[in-house]
Amino acid sequence: MSNAIQLIKHAQQLATASGYTHIVVQAARGQIVVMRDGNRYGAKLLERCRP
Fold first, then answer.
1. What is the pLDDT of residues 1-19, one digit of tens each?
2. pLDDT digits over 10-49, tens only?
3. CA 45, CA 32: separation in Å to the nearest integer?
4. How far is CA 41 from the centre of its chain?
C-alpha cells in the first residue's frame, strides 16, 4: 500500500477522533504531510477528511 494511502487513512482516523478536519498535502519537495485544515502555504491538497 502506498504511503499516500496510509496517510489518508491516518488523517481519517485523526478527524474522527479529534472532531477537526484534517488534510493531506504534498509540499514542494514532494513530501506528503497530514495536518489540521488551515493555511497550506502553497502545498497541493491531496485529500480533505472531515469528522
1. 588 899 999 999 999 999 9
2. 999 999 999 999 999 999 898 999 999 988 888 999 999 9
3. 10
4. 14
Query: What residues does 47 pair with on adjacent strands?
Result: 24
Q: How far apart are CA 27 and CA 16, in angstroms?
A: 24
Amino acid at 48: R
Place of cell 497550506: 40
**Look-up: residue for cell 469528522?**
51
pTM of structure? 0.83
CA angle 32, 7, 3 (to 5 degrees): 70
